[in-house]
From TrEMBL:
The keyword Iron does not apply. PANTHER family: ALPHA_BETA HYDROLASE FOLD-3 DOMAIN-CONTAINING PROTEIN, TRIACYLGLYCEROL LIPASE. It comes from Mucilaginibacter antarcticus. InterPro entries: AB_hydrolase_3, AB_hydrolase_fold. GO terms for molecular function: hydrolase activity. It comes from the Bacteria. SUPFAM superfamilies: alpha/beta-Hydrolases. This is Alpha/beta hydrolase. Pfam families: Abhydrolase_3. Residues 1-21 form the signal peptide.
Length: 375
């Protein structure tokens, strides 16, 4: 699940201040694990929460708490009590951030990006993609194939529009955001198949969208992070061109809902354990499919994958499996960077307009992709 929230104004990311963090290298230089502890003065307008920190998140950062409070203020029914169709009408953290921006006089960002839509053929139907192209006049750009979150059940390209804009604008790459088909109307592995087909389409048609076919990365958040990694695995298995890099933000990577972070964050917001159970029941044909390595990525064959960047959040049921995935990738010989952000929740990525840790995460993701592209 995700927000993909409006972020910093165009160019503001370049003013991000350095963060105070602790970095450790685990035995080799193939894996860098960073725990984000403090983000210093960013020049952002501070947004303060109305009440005390919630019992489920005593360490929550004030700006993150303000977003969660605003989301709760809408009074929507909990998603596990709704049908998928009803849940898609709930307010999102994107709405909360946009309202906080309006209430606090924070201007919407301006991105130097053009967008266009296109429908591509997939098995059994069509899938829409939104193509974000930098307006800098280059003959060819690197490409990022991006998959939104939402537990394979909810959300859409609009909810994640800001994440795509941020990556396109600051990486100076084309972003192809994929509206894979959602469950329960389209059960497992439809989203996975759509994700891979979209990647193949981009590779085969890169020149037609001003893309550099030799520099194509995959990226995604939550369920989309899972799809990004699966797409790389399938490309490897089919002998197709591997992505240049993978960016997975708090990816769905396991099937064990009794990990340390699930136990600690069972009641967290905006993603809690009951919601994850609801997503699984809607997407999978049966609960046994949770053991499929396409869902349970920590049990997948991860050898031969490209440079991978994983971002996790402290207050998130998925934190443990994201960290375990990084360990499994390292053991498989993959170059991995893992950065965990303290005091923030699932969905924080893209909230850079109001949450300093999100601003830093966006800058980090951009720098990792640019490094992979040789920029």
């Amino acid at each position: 699940m995700k927000t993909g929230i409006l972020t910093i104004a165009a160019g503001a990311a370049l003013l991000l201040s350095a963060c105070q963090s602790k970095t450790t290298t685990n035995g080799t230089d193939s894996t860098v694990v960073t725990t984000e502890s403090t983000v210093t003065d960013t020049g952002m307008k501070a947004i303060k929460p109305a009440g005390p920190a919630p019992a489920w998140a005593p360490s929550i950062k004030p700006e993150m708490q303000a977003v969660i409070e605003k989301l709760a203020s809408y009074g929507d029914k909990p998603i596990p009590e709704l049908s998928a169709q009803q849940a898609r009408k709930n307010h999102t953290p994107t709405d909360a951030v946009m309202d906080l921006m309006a209430e606090n006089g924070i201007a919407k960002p301006v991105f130097n990006v053009d967008t266009m839509g296109k429908d591509i053929a997939v098995a059994g139907g069509m899938v829409h993609v939104r193509i974000y192209t930098p307006k800098t006049g280059k003959a060819a750009y690197p490409v990022i194939v991006y998959y939104h979150g939402g537990g394979f059940v909810i959300a859409n390209l609009d909810v994640y529009d800001a994440s795509a804009n941020v990556l396109a604008h600051h990486t100076e790459a084309i972003v192809v955001s994929v509206a894979y088909r959602l469950a329960p109307e389209n059960k497992f592995p439809t989203a996975h198949n759509d994700a891979y087909t979209a990647y193949e389409w981009v590779v085969n048609n890169a020149a037609s969208i001003k893309g550099d076919a030799k520099k194509i990365a995959v990226a995604g958040e939550s369920a989309g992070g899972n799809l990004a990694i699966n797409t790389a695995i399938k490309a490897r298995d089919k002998g197709f061109m591997l992505p240049t890099a993978i960016l997975a933000v708090y990816p769905v990577a396991g099937s064990d809902m009794n990990t340390p972070s699930y136990l600690k964050n069972a009641a967290a917001k905006p993603l809690d354990k009951p919601m994850m159970m609801w997503f699984v029941k809607n997407y999978l044909n049966n609960m046994g499919e949770g053991k499929d390595p396409r869902i349970n990525l920590i049990a997948a064959n991860l050898k031969g994958l490209p440079m991978t960047t994983i971002i996790t959040a402290e207050i998130d049921p998925l934190q443990s499996e994201g960290m375990m995935l990084a360990d499994k990738l390292k053991a498989a010989g993959v170059t991995v960077d893992l950065k965990n952000y303290d005091g923030v929740t699932h969905e924080f990525f893209g909230m850079g307009a109001v949450v300093p840790q999100a601003m830093d995460a966006e800058k980090y993701a951009v720098s990792q992709l640019k490094k992979a592209f040789g920029m």
